[in-house]
Amino acid sequence: MSQKYTIGLDYGTDSVRSLIVNVENGEEMAGAVYNYRHWKEGLYCDAPSNRFRQHPKDYLEGLEFTIVEALKKVPKEVAENVVGISVDTTGSTPVAVDEKGTPLSLTPGFEENPNAMFVLWKDHTAVKEAEEINELARKWDIDFTKYEGGIYSSEWFWAKVLHIIREDAGVFRAAYSWVEHCDWIPALLTGDTNPKTLKRSRCAAGHKAMWHEAFSGLPSEEFLIALDPMLAGLRERLYKETFTCDVAAGKLSPEWAEKLGLSSNVTVGVGAFDAHLGAVGAEIKPYYVSKVMGTSTCDMLITPMEEAGDKLVNGICGQVDGSIVPGMLGLEAGQSAFGDIYAWFRRILEWPLKNILADTNLVDEETRQKLIEETSDKIIAKLSEDAEKVALEDSGIVALDWMNGRRTPDANQALKGAITGLNLGSDAPRIFRALVEATAFGSKAINERFVEEGVRIDGVIALGGVAKKSPFVMQVVADVLNMPIKVARSEQACALGSAMMASVAAGVYSTTLEAQEKMGGGIESEYHPIPENVEKYQKLYDKYKKLGKFIEFDY
Amino acid sequence: MSQKYTIGLDYGTDSVRSLIVNVENGEEMAGAVYNYRHWKEGLYCDAPSNRFRQHPKDYLEGLEFTIVEALKKVPKEVAENVVGISVDTTGSTPVAVDEKGTPLSLTPGFEENPNAMFVLWKDHTAVKEAEEINELARKWDIDFTKYEGGIYSSEWFWAKVLHIIREDAGVFRAAYSWVEHCDWIPALLTGDTNPKTLKRSRCAAGHKAMWHEAFSGLPSEEFLIALDPMLAGLRERLYKETFTCDVAAGKLSPEWAEKLGLSSNVTVGVGAFDAHLGAVGAEIKPYYVSKVMGTSTCDMLITPMEEAGDKLVNGICGQVDGSIVPGMLGLEAGQSAFGDIYAWFRRILEWPLKNILADTNLVDEETRQKLIEETSDKIIAKLSEDAEKVALEDSGIVALDWMNGRRTPDANQALKGAITGLNLGSDAPRIFRALVEATAFGSKAINERFVEEGVRIDGVIALGGVAKKSPFVMQVVADVLNMPIKVARSEQACALGSAMMASVAAGVYSTTLEAQEKMGGGIESEYHPIPENVEKYQKLYDKYKKLGKFIEFDY
């Protein structure tokens, strides 16, 4: 047979990337990256109030650019032999759409309205609405949050929908339905964006929208009306059925086939969340935590359905049949901020550069900018280098990693971070070290919760930018977790995972496991806990928990 | 009569300054500053372990330089009509001396030994010894700490002596006695450095060495031996009697008269602590807190002896008859770090400048240094400017000002600072604002303690670098204390206070009050609390106390 190829499309927070993969051996043929144009300019966002919106044009431009550019880099035969495309995106990142499924910001009158755009996963404007959902859920006969860890987050679908329609009457009136980013792209590619017929992802529905077979779908109309009468009727205009990402959403529409330079015989897979397909790409296996480590983390674990039983894991981000790997129970947890905490500290240290050095007259404008950039760019690396030299426990500093709230265990976006044990000798590397330790403690708290709730953990497979680039951080995490950590080889685990699922959706392979075995890149490196550190970190972790308890309950 | 002049000599942490003052009207004729040579180079110190030592040569060089230089700036008649010199220094800053009263580091074999040098007030190496003193004091029939607020500090005389002799057998064997910095300089000037006869200051003895008339002097030999047999016999080689700073220590020795270009008819006053004479210079009056605001603070309050009664104020740094103003009960409290906390934060922000920008090849070495200096120098001013624009309560950040331990209320140098309420939007100015608020809360905690213990406070008179230079900080402190703050006019309140006391010691005036009335500079500005801020700060102060309680007792 001639070679076959699939394309994985991975929509991240700042950019989208494509990856063309040889389905037979996983060879990564070519790829391309597109940085969102509007997003890069900071449009439609307001960081101090945690409002983060993305314009659908960014997604559309990136879709065309990354596939066309990647195809330019490979022989024509490759394009001719692409058999499938699958897409992963951030989530929950929903948008209000009209009857045709067009995001409102692509319709007249809404072009510049942030409420008519995609509400990015990390948007925290809906804190109040999340609280209302939790309050109502506590009182209701059926606990609709029970498969989502028992606590609904402001980062998720219903909180966001409710917040937007309350805030923006125009969007409320014009919004026929709502669509997740990971559902909109496949719908677009297949040419069926009808909100009532487009195939909805099990990931998004199960983990973020309280969809579950046991509820016959989404939470009941009564529940939603009790939450707010403004939600009346919306349930009917959403969906009942959901699909795992081994299912085909349809074939590539002639329109998009032409745009992209592909045949209309290409299968488009049902979409999924980036972290989930990252776990697939990194060859997640049962009872291993697949940890995507970037600005935040997503900690995923799969267990065979037959072993999962009726067990409910409290305080995580949900447990959904087939959400990560079709046929397995997918459990998801995560830290609201990980690398973002290091970036926050870098921003603090950059302050004199950007606010004082930027105005100097000692050098010309161009040199000034270069000096600022050069210095900023080196901060994290130099901090890591110096922090690594600080002896464990030496600084006495203990920090709490809740600078972006806490996703798990027990979601609470209102929580904040802290740094204790400071003295006049606490320098930047010592504080940085404590922040790194705090993010590792946040990871440990998640692992502990899984174990407390009866889900064993056999190991950790790490992926994402931090896992690849920060040996110092990774060693701390291994020591704190007291568990070896394998780092997946693929530079683009999410896109690779999408390409794997595309091969299943297109029928090349019949199971995810088969695709992983053929296309996976294996392990690149492994971190082993250093025994003498393990014990010391346990003590610091006890302080971390004590501090957290005080901040959360008594402060 | 011809004009008369006195010289005030003020030994601070980094430098010593002289001030020649016209006793009739307080006119400041001239002065000079000397930055300690060895200290500037960081010799004999180890900041991470809080070891801070000063070489007596720094004091000697500064003594001669500042007086000679100041006299060069005034007509010859002024030098001829100098009638008195008084000295203030930091404290408790003791040194081990031989039988002649010579600091060991000025004797052969000890020249480079930090343990043979002055142990600077802020040296915290004796934390363990302070604990032992407190433990023993709790068990002893007489509580020797009761006039020092009930808690003995690692910053004080006995803790430091005990720490040094335990650590350094050579110094232990060679040390005949110990002398405070404020006692050594007048002793030197009068030519009598004999440890058994030189006049010891009431300030140092009463506030730092548990000396009290009710104890017939220093703590009993039995107590000291119970503390450590190594202390046996030392009490006898120290002192029984102490003197207030209106008393003459003697006349200027011919040797020093010649060195300085003064007559040997000049009266040398008994020495005192810098903060106390600063309070005198700033015209302290009964029931006003005289607050020296610099790297740390010293908060002083005087009450007429007849009104003081037998009342003991718990948790402060002592109450001593005549320690601040002869004839009044002098109460002392203070914050272990104030401006030092702002400087600490500046150092953190400077880190990329000094560790990354310093290595750039984009500009030459000279420009590099200039850029770093220019940027560093502007950090605090720019932070203040931006922090002032942040609305009160807006950031949600609450900090604890214990980065250098806590001096009062309830000394505990082992405590550490903290910053809570951090999120990814917490930028440098917001954190700085919280640090400023925390130092103000530390001030409030001291005022509250005085009032709780039955000492009323009618107002605050501020002096020191922060009071003069930081209107933003001063307004926050006024709002937090809910009390108007007057800022004393003199730029050199400590040196001026010394010059005032020299005029009393020399017999020009018969009381401190008289000298203050003639020589005082009055008030320069006043800060009034803004009512709407007062209430908001009260809420934040409640959080500060809650946080402090947790950090101190439950963490």
Quick tags:
18% strand, 7-stranded mixed beta sheet, Nucleotidyltransferase, domain 5, ribulokinase activity (chains A, B), nucleotide-binding (chains A, B), homodimer, 20 strands, alpha/beta, FGGY_C (chains A, B), 20 helices, 555 residues, 2 domains
Short description:
The structure is a homodimer of 555-residue chains. In chain A, 41% of the residues lie in helices and 18% in strands.
Overall description:
2 copies of one chain form a homodimer. Chain A is of the alpha/beta class. The first copy, chain A, has 2 domains: 5-282 and 491-521, ATPase, nucleotide binding domain (Nucleotidyltransferase, domain 5), CATH 3.30.420; 339-456 and 472-481 and 531-554, 2-Layer Sandwich (Nucleotidyltransferase, domain 5), CATH 3.30.420.40. Chain A contains 20 helices and 20 strands. In chain A, the strands form 5 sheets. In chain A, strands 1, 2, 3, 5, 9, 10 and 11 form a 7-stranded mixed beta sheet that branches. In chain A, α4 (127-139) packs across α5 (157-167) and α13 packs across α14 (365-389). The termini of chain A are far apart. Chains A and B meet through α13, α14, β17, α15 and α20 of A and α13, α14, β17, α15 and α20 of B. Chains A, B: It is an enzyme of class 2 (transferase). Chains A, B: Keywords: Arabinose catabolism, ATP-binding, Carbohydrate metabolism, Kinase, Nucleotide-binding, Transferase. Chains A, B: One of its GO terms (molecular function) is D-ribulokinase activity. Chains A, B: Residues 5-281 form the Carbohydrate kinase FGGY N-terminal domain. Chains A, B: Its EC number is 2.7.1.16.
